[in-house]
Design brief:
The protein has a domain of 41 residues. 49% of the residues lie in helices and 0% in strands. The chain is built from 4 helices and no strands. The two termini are 37 Å apart.
């Protein structure tokens, strides 16, 4: 039988949300490589065709700027549920209101 939900086989393992050490080191190395070779990179980019140049620039930007995500909004077509009046409801009104809510949900 597998692990119970919430339990781990390695309680001393990497904490949730911590950064991967290899990824962090690789990103740092790439940043240092680019920073220390900017002049040569600029010369090399100038020798490329415009299309090739922008492909390289786009790939380099992925290390600096996170990719954008698309958030699609859906229009809710259901009518809003009635709000209770701003007064104290009688028992029968309250019962009717809750019955109406139960039907909707």
């Amino acid at each position: 039988m597998g692990q119970k939900k919430g339990n781990t086989g390695n309680p001393a393992g990497r904490p949730k949300g911590s950064k991967n050490k290899v990824s962090t080191e690789l990103k740092t190395w790439v940043q240092m490589l680019i920073t220390s070779n900017t002049e040569q990179l600029e010369k090399d980019l100038q020798s490329l065709e415009p299309n090739q140049k922008w492909v390289i620039i786009e790939k380099l930007l992925q290390f600096v700027i996170p990719k954008a995500t698309i958030h699609l909004e859906t229009k809710d077509t259901t009518p809003p549920r009635p709000t209770p009046p701003a007064r104290i409801l009688r028992r029968d009104e309250l019962k009717e209101y809750f019955e109406q809510l139960e039907k909707e949900y």
